[in-house]
Write a structure and sequence with these properties.
GO biological process, one term: riboflavin biosynthetic process
Oligomer: single chain
Structural class: alpha/beta
Organism: Amycolatopsis tolypomycina
Pfam family, one: RibD_C
CATH topology: Dihydrofolate Reductase, subunit A
GO molecular function: 5-amino-6-(5-phosphoribosylamino)uracil reductase activity
Mean pLDDT: 95
Protein name: Dihydrofolate reductase
């Protein structure tokens, strides 16, 4: 099985969205450089960010998101973002009316079921868990191996927390990656067991 990694861009004060559920400048780093990060050419980052991020993105076999993110993005119109092969949506509700059953989106009732399903799809590749409430729940359940953050130089003051509503202490190892890009600091921590 591949690693389970909790990931997102995050403000310096620990938020993945502002109080209006908007990411604001959290993704500005994705257009702050000259090196294309994807085939579209719309995302351009520094060479350092490209080397770090592209290697990570290429290793993702499945992504887990909550129903809130799925609804906010309108299910990415049935096409997983960033070339991801499968998206597992944690939800207690059924797929939306008229949802294409052939789309590579899978619905799971609970985080344990979502992680198990994502691991089946990912095999030895990475299972990415979106930060926020679902990511915090997966961390609290002891199912996260690694925490990755793209820390952006902005302070929101309030909003959606990176770790969601986690209210217990979780120890991480010292960072094993601290990489400065344009308008972003990439951090990677292993979760201590």
């Amino acid at each position: 099985m591949g690693k389970v990694v909790m990931y997102s861009s995050v403000s310096v004060d620990g938020f993945i969205a502002d109080e209006k559920d908007q990411p604001g400048p959290l993704f500005d780093w994705l257009t702050s450089g000259t090196v294309p990060l994807d085939e579209s050419g719309a995302l351009k980052v520094s060479q350092t960010s490209h080397d770090y991020t592209r290697r990570y993105w290429d290793g993702i076999g499945a992504t887990i998101v909550g129903r809130h993110v799925f609804d906010l993005t309108d299910g990415w119109d049935g096409t997983p973002p960033g070339g991801i092969d499968h998206v597992v949506v944690v939800t207690h509700r059924p797929a939306p009316e008229g949802w294409n059953p052939a789309a590579p989106f899978h619905f799971a009732d609970g985080i344990e079921a979502a992680v198990a399903k994502a691991q089946q799809f990912a095999g030895d590749r990475t299972v990415e868990v979106a930060a926020g409430d679902v990511g915090g729940q997966v961390l609290a359940a002891g199912l996260v191996d690694e925490v990755r953050m793209d820390v952006v130089p902005v302070v929101f003051g309030a909003g959606k927390r990176y770790f969601g509503t986690v209210d217990a202490q979780h120890l991480l190892a010292d960072p094993d990656a601290v990489i400065q890009g344009n308008r972003v600091l990439h951090l990677r921590y292993q979760v201590r067991r």
